[in-house]
Amino acid sequence: MKKQGFTLIELMVVIVIMGILAAVAVPKLFGMIAKSKASEVGPAAGTYVKLQDAYASESNKVGTWKSIGYVAPGASAAGSSGTTTNFTYSGSITDDAEIGSFAGGNGWTASNNAALNECAIGAGNWNIAVAANNNGNSLSYTASTACPELTPSFDKIGQ
């Protein structure tokens, strides 16, 4: 009578192979989770830039969040800071200013509330600086991030 089943060696080989696959897959999984959390930043920043551009072309001014009608993700009303599970959004332009006399400022910031790989919590890792162009009637934007691996195209917002 022939006995059927797996030997201890065969079972150990399968367990080792599964361990190697898990060791490779788990770090990739956590990286993808952080990237998916950071994906909310791009659309929020793009909306800010579009609203600021529209306001500037209509009024020849740089506007506050309330003036341009920007509602941050998680905010209850236009003009107020917003907080979601992953980010806190804020801006530092406090008064409307004529574009020709605008000295520039940080118009939009997103600080992460949760650990996202190597991005420090609450460090204001995503920023959009607003500046007046030399022609005195349009704006330029400089987007910067301390976490380019999570949002690789963020620095192209506003260009």
Give the key terms.
3 helices; alpha+beta; elongated; about 160 residues
What does this structure look like?
The chain is of the alpha+beta class. The chain has helices at residues 8-38, 41-59, 65-68; strands spanning 61-62, 82-83, 87-90, 97-98, 105-112, 126-132, 139-145. The protein has a 5-stranded antiparallel β-sheet, with helices on one face. The termini are far apart. The mean pLDDT is 90.
The radius of gyration computed from the alpha-carbon positions, rounded to a whole number of angstroms, is 24 Å
Poorly predicted ranges: none
- Rough shape? elongated
Largest sheet: 5 strands, antiparallel
User: How many beta-strand runs?
Assistant: 7
Count of helix runs: 3
Q: Gap between N and C termini, in Å?
A: 77 Å
Give the helices and strands as they follow along the chain. Answer: HHEHEEEEEE
How much of the sequence lies in strands comes to: 15-25%
Helix content: 25-40%
Strand order, largest beta sheet:
2-3-5-6-7
Question: Whole-number average pLDDT?
Answer: 90
Secondary-structure content class: alpha+beta
